[in-house]
Amino acid sequence: MVDSRTVWNCIACVVLATLMTAGPAGAQSTSSEPRPNIVFVYVDDLGYTDVNPYSARPDQYYETPNITQLAGQGMTFTNAYANAANCAPSRAALMSGQAYPLQPIYTVNSGARGDAEDRKVIPVENETRLPLDKITIAEQLTKAGYQTAFMGKWHLGAPPEAGPKQQGFDVNVGGTETGHPSWEGAYFQPNNNPEIDDAEKGEYMTDYLFRKAEEYIRQNQDEPFYLQLSPYSVHVPLQAPDSRILPFEEKDPVGGHNNSTYAAMIKSVDRGIGHILETLDELGLRRNTMVIFYSDNGGLGGFQSIGLDKNGITDHAPLKGGKGTFYEGGIRVPLVIRWPKVTRPGTTTDEPVLGSDFFPTLLDAANVGLPPNQPLNGISFVPVLQDASTTLEREALYWHFPGYLQAYGPGDWRTTPVSVVRAGPWKLMRFYENNRLELYNLETDLGETQNLAQKRPEKRKEMVGRLDAWLKRTDAPIPRQKED
Ligand SMILES: [Ca+2]
Predict the structure, then answer these.
(1) Which of 133, 271, 309, 418 has the fewest CB atoms within 10 Å distance of its CB?
(2) Roughly what angle, to the nearest 10 degrees, separates helices 65-73 and 260-282?
(3) Distance 316 CA to ligand 1 centre (A)
(4) Which pLDDT tens digit goes with each residue over 151-167?
């Protein structure tokens, strides 16, 4: 028979454990399980179909054997989204768990792109620096005893005022306020990146960053660590070692994929991931290290599908659009996660997830509480990692972009101001110029070719209602009409 004091003690233990987990700092872990290491490879401008696990065709142009291996050992997400269609706002959402307008960055530099006379509404002002009072993933994991390192593209403010070290990372290698590898020389050293001082002359940036990542893992193998590796690749300027470009020049184009330098940049990232995976195996860290491969927005291409003359450097068929558009090609991105302790090898999930979900997800995985005073857009998708068939309890996914992104010529836009909601298979886009509505069923029309806004008035009304309620709830700034 169990005596009542034992029962009471057990209840007290549970209560104490709960309080500690959700305590004021929200960062205490009580689990005796070793906390996972996290290696987050956050690629730049890589399109949905630009790595083999996502290729629309078997005769794929790109070569990504290590990412394919990672997918075979982990989980592939077919409905992973970025919080924005370009770099800085996606990165801000990932770091803070807050998508615009919870944090103030919705685009890169200014939302008033293009010529003023071509803009029919007045865009909302944008900020370029993630406020320092935002609690980042790194800050929260640091409170729980993690070692943290940032390598590569930061784009959320300039060091030493607002760089990675000011936002919770112990280490910063190459992270600055700019979205490019450097001001001069770009991908090859020396490139005058002020946050790099130990690269070899002529070293290719991608190789350098992965080399530093490997060194970091070796040095921190005995600690739980969070390594954010954001190679500037595959963002322009297109540059790669000649020896990696030449083999692709011998290959035939596959669909809209034919750029040998872009392919060599992707291959260089894949090669770096191969080195990371080998290092984790060598150190015996594979089982409890979460390796994440994810992109911040779609590839720079696919623009003929939105009616522009030029296509860019990649394509997203069967998806529509590309970087800078809020069609699927601009925001649906590759995501592969391997965490052998939790994910089953070779699994695929169709559950939609967002960049802002990583904040609660990674803290959940590390058994670390959420910061008490920072409202979040996302939810933890650890239940999906545990079981690929899980459906998350989420009302809808939202995007808000109250600005302009120009394309190739005057009046050519990648996007005009727009808000977007996706609920189940349905996606509604509201363009603020002329209040145009577009409604798509992604289940039957992945390529967003049939606008059902007129044919499905009840669905349109329901989706508009969701969007309006969310814009109101988040107090979202709306572009103003020009006075006649
Ligand atoms: Ca980007």
Answers:
(1) 133
(2) 50
(3) 15
(4) 999 999 999 999 999 99
